[in-house]
């Protein structure tokens, strides 16, 4: 199932950007943007938008690039059951920022593919004052990975 | 140790330090604040996400 995360199927009209070469494809760039507690992001969010995004000292609209060093993996327990999973390979850090208005959401998106949505994650609302906001990643395992596709 | 604050780098010993955390099914969040004479001059936070984004994918039986 990890092939789902690698985008190796084209089941409809393609809208993706070419990976440059079929013999030496490139990895997409994943970015992480922060959103205010008042913003509305959910499973129906399909693309990055600056609406509701945080703003403040040293925060650049669009967020930061996510270290994408892990290849999606999967474990399969039967012919139809299994879990595909992926986790960024490093923490996401916003360094020396001031974000005075409460925010509670991080939005991962694919900036190579027209800023299409990957996932939305929420946490207890925070503010940052002349400090660092870090999102530490769970273990990249079947049970704990940040993004998992499962079948039973 | 120097702390980055809204007033520039300041010696940690001169500031009041406050810390807190939240630990639930969704996250482990910790934060640290430094106060100078009742004024918040530094706040950092660190979130470890516990709950995965995990859509269910159904495989329909044939026939």
Structural commentary:
The complex is a heterodimer of chains A (152) and B (63). Chain A is built from one helix and seven strands. Chain A has 152 residues and is mainly β. Chain A has one domain (2-10, 29-141). Chain A has a four-stranded antiparallel sheet, with no helix packed on it. In chain A, a hairpin with a 5-residue loop joins strand 3 and strand 4. The model of chain A has no long low-confidence stretch (mean pLDDT 86). Chain B is rod-shaped. The model of chain B has no long low-confidence stretch (mean pLDDT 90). Chain B has one domain. Chain B contains no helices and five strands. A three-stranded antiparallel sheet of chain B has the order 3-4-5, with no helix packed on it. Chain B is an all-beta fold and 63 residues long. Classes of the chains: A mainly beta (152), B mainly beta (63).
Write a concise keyword list for the protein shown above.
heterodimer; A: 152 residues; mainly beta; four-stranded antiparallel beta sheet; three-stranded antiparallel beta sheet; globular; B: 63 residues
* Overall mean confidence score, pLDDT of chain A: 86
* Uncertain stretches of 5 or more adjacent residues of chain A: none
Radius of gyration of chain A: 17 Å
Please list the strands of the largest sheet of chain B in the order they lie side by side.
3-4-5
């Amino acid at each position: 199932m990890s092939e789902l995360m690698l985008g190796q199927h084209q089941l409809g009209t393609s809208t993706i950007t070419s990976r440059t070469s079929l013999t030496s494809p490139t990895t997409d760039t994943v970015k992480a943007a922060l959103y205010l507690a008042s913003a509305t992001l959910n499973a129906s969010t399909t693309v990055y938008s600056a609406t509701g995004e945080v703003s403040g000292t040293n925060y650049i609209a669009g967020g930061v690039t996510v270290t994408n060093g892990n290849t999606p993996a999967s474990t399969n327990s039967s012919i139809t059951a299994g879990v595909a999973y992926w986790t960024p390979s490093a923490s996401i850090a916003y360094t020396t920022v001031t974000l005075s208005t409460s925010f509670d959401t991080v939005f991962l998106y694919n900036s190579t593919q027209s800023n299409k949505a990957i996932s939305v994650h929420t946490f207890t609302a925070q503010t940052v004052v002349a400090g660092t906001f870090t999102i530490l990643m769970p273990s990249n395992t079947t049970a704990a990975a940040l993004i998992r596709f499962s079948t039973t | 140790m120097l702390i980055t604050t809204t007033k520039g780098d300041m010696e940690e010993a001169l500031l009041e330090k406050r810390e807190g955390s939240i630990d639930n099914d969704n996250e482990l969040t910790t934060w640290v604040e430094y106060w100078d004479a009742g004024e918040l001059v530094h706040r950092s936070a660190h979130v470890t996400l516990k709950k995965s984004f995990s859509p269910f994918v159904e495989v329909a039986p044939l026939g």
